[in-house]
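pinned: reference chain
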Amino acid sequence: MSLTFYYVPMSTSSITEAVLAELDIPCDRVQLSIVDGDTKKPDFLAINPNGRVPVIVHEGIAIWESAAITLYLGELFGVEAKLYPPAGPQRGEAMKWIVWGNVSLAEAAGRLSALMSADSDGAVQSNSQDWVSPEQRSPIALEKAKSDLTRCLGILDHALDGKSFLLGDYSLVDTHLQGFIGWISSMEVDLQAFPNVMGWLKRCCERPAIARMMAE
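pinned: its structure tokens
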């Protein structure tokens, strides 16, 4: 099997890294640097014209967007590993949460991250595509991002009520979402208001594959 993983440390790439680790999939790794402009260079843009990570290239096919990568790897490798549901209603449940993580949760978190000062924990790098210059920021936009993110965290907290993990047993859904929540926890967001999310995140971080990543 030929699989190459393009990534930037401390980015959304960490989600795909965790998925690959949980599935124990061997791959070649190509580390890029946003600071050095690697994601804007022609050779990388030929792989992903969006100029973003993560990207995997599997058997010559480039797959980008972290949600698409998780769905793809889950379908191909996760069912046999008991980490992704077979085709059916629970597969739909898994897809729902993975896509929600990118479309709703990460969108709100990304807006907040882009509006934070560059030296703040969780803020985007100043030469990132998502960077918002200080003169373009506004207190109203910042409060709106915080409000939207709080609403999303409330949705997740409610979904985890009475559950250890989102689908009952641990799955790639949890692998995917814990990456976003781990990032959010480094921002100016009080997760203490969401006890179910806090407990779930702790359980996710106790997974051997994720614990090894965090220790590196």
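why pinned: Residues 181 and 201 are 8 Å apart (CA to CA). The radius of gyration is 17 Å.
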